[in-house]
Task: structure prediction
Amino acid sequence: MDPSPLWTVNFWQSTAERAAKTFAQALAAVLTNDGLGWLDISWPVAVGSAGTAAFLSLLTSIASAPSVEPGTPSLVRTRPVHESSLPAEDSDGDENTT
Result:
């Protein structure tokens, strides 16, 4: 029996990376939003907003765990699909339906 995707190292590494990126992006958005100087920013509010975004990213990853690709927090397939399952194309680029 395969372990739950929540208990794999790959899942938690990917989830942590997503949460860290979300935190950085949200913090950058808050810091540049009003065009204020670094000393004029309400740092607790900025960090709190970024932390909330990172927490929501974490929850989204956990909710996505049993989805398309086991062991990852992704809602989309990240591994390549085998060419044999793709429709063949003619030399002009059109799908071959025969």
In short: The radius of gyration is 21 Å. Residues 5-66 form one domain. Residues 9-33 form the longest helix (25 residues). The chain has a mean pLDDT of 78.
